[in-house]
Amino acid sequence: MEFVIVLITAPQAEAKELARILVGEKLAACANIIDTVSSIYWWEGKIQDDTEGLLILKTRNDMVDTLIARTKQIHSYAVPEIIALPIIRGNQDYLNWIDESVRL
After folding, report:
1. Which of 2, 13, 31, 82 has its CA 20 to 30 A from that of 72?
2. Contact (Cβ atoms closer than 8 angstroms) between residue 27 and residue 18
């Protein structure tokens, strides 16, 4: 079984609700939220400077496409940041818990 960490940025007011929905629908086993990250990026031809929340979700690799699709449905951004990174190694008991906590 392959596991991933999914990073999603969102407006601070929206981050907790996104996490509740994605975990509630068993698309991720858990979500950590860093309340304040400073984001500087290009958008619509100019540099933006915003304060956002950062979601750190843990899930299985086979759930990523569904998680991306669902996030795009409920996220307020036209092009939300959704990036999956592989978990190379970890506490096997924790990885087993992730596996048991997401939908089959």
Report:
1. 2
2. no
